[in-house]
């Protein structure tokens, strides 16, 4: 279920710098995205649909990252939700990476 609720509970925009300090980063391979929307449901502060019907990551500024391979930091309060999105994604297109580039979650893990 996709929600239109854009309150600070559904889409936290008031995260502190410490809350944004996760060392994990997440990106989506749009070529593999099915547009199912599970990620958008699980972590709407990190994932959002664009006009093409595919999910993209969005940064702390709320802007979608639409360039191929772009990643964003995973906010600490949302680490579990982002990892669940990567693990459960039917398109197997979400990659959660550690600073050294190894995968924490996603295809091949």
In short:
The chain is of the alpha+beta class and 109 residues long. It has helices at residues 38-42, 79-88, and strands at 25-28, 47-49, 55-58, 64-65, 72-73, 94-97, 103-105. The longest helix has 10 residues, at 79-88.
Label this structure with key terms.
alpha+beta, 4-stranded antiparallel beta sheet, single chain, globular, 109 residues, disordered N terminus
Furnish the topology, listing elements before pairings.
Blueprint: E1 25-28, H1 38-42, E2 47-49, E3 55-58, E4 64-65, E5 72-73, H2 79-88, E6 94-97, E7 103-105
Antiparallel strand pairs: 1-5, 1-6, 2-3, 3-4, 6-7
Give the biggest sheet. 4 strands, antiparallel
Poorly predicted sequence stretches spanning 5 or more consecutive residues: 1-12, 15-20
Roughly what is the average pLDDT, rounded to an integer? 84
Protein structure class: alpha+beta
How many separate helices? 2
Q: Taking strands numbered 1, 2, ... along the chain, how are they ordered across the largest sheet?
A: 5-1-6-7
DSSP strand count = 7
Strand content: 15-25%
List the helices and strands in order.
EHEEEEHEE
Describe this entry's structure for a reader.
The protein is an alpha+beta fold. Helices cover 14% and strands 20% of the residues. The chain has helices at residues 38-42, 79-88, and strands spanning 25-28, 47-49, 55-58, 64-65, 72-73, 94-97, 103-105. A hairpin with a 5-residue loop joins strand 6 and strand 7. The longest helix has 10 residues, at 79-88. The radius of gyration is 13 Å and the shape is globular.
